[in-house]
Write a structure and sequence with these properties.
Blueprint (H helix, E strand, L loop, with lengths): L18 H18 L4 H6 L2 E3 L4 E3 L2 E5 L5 E5 L4 E6 L2 E6 L10 E3 L4 E3 L6 E2 L5 E3 L8 E7 L2 E10 L5 H5 L3 E2 L1
Parallel strand pairs: 1-4
Antiparallel strand pairs: 2-3, 3-12, 4-5, 5-6, 6-13, 7-8, 8-9, 9-10, 11-12
């Protein structure tokens, strides 16, 4: 028995427009993540965005050099954004938690938005509105010398593990 479309029914939605678009949007989302960390919009647009790969991996742990300056680094293979702003370093997921569509940064509105279902998020990843039912996800991070260790198997959902989600940061 079909009861009709629900708030999470994706029937008729446009498909994601490919891997390149996903990666382009991920880089834009990284700039938005910086805004969540307190960087003014005009500064966030000027922060460098670069493509990186993990320098090492052990199981689900990816190792990246701790950025020496403010900016965003995107590991497209692992779908991780590494962002440094001031003394804080974060690792974000590139995807909307609803159906894994690449989020886009809406510069004029100062927020993230899912192009598929129009879910909206504050710059810190907190849910505002839309079909999604929770905030954006953050990866577990820790410091090992001059490296940032990101556990890509440990993704914190703000609605289930709020304290861990808030603590997913390395302070330098």
């Amino acid at each position: 028995m079909t009861l009709g479309p629900s708030a999470h029914d994706c029937t008729g939605c446009a498909l994601a427009d490919g891997r390149r678009a996903f990666l382009r949007d991920a880089a834009r989302s990284a700039v938005g993540a910086l805004l969540a960390l307190g960087v003014a919009p005009r500064l966030a647009a000027a922060l460098p965005v670069e493509w990186i790969s993990a320098q090492g991996a052990s199981g689900t742990h990816k190792r990246y050099p701790i950025p020496t300056r403010d900016g965003v680094q995107v590991d497209k293979e692992s779908e991780v954004i590494v962002a440094r702003v001031g003394n804080a370093v974060y690792a974000f997921s590139l995807s909307c938690p609803h159906q894994r569509t690449a989020l886009r940064w809406q510069e004029k509105e100062g927020r993230f938005q899912c192009p598929k279902h129009k879910s909206k998020y504050r710059p810190d990843g907190a849910y505002i509105s839309g079909r999604a039912t929770r905030s954006m996800d953050r990866f577990a991070v820790e410091r090992d010398g001059q490296q940032l260790v990101v556990d890509i198997a440990l993704l914190f959902r703000e609605d289930e593990h709020r304290a861990r989600w808030q603590g997913a940061v390395v302070m330098l």
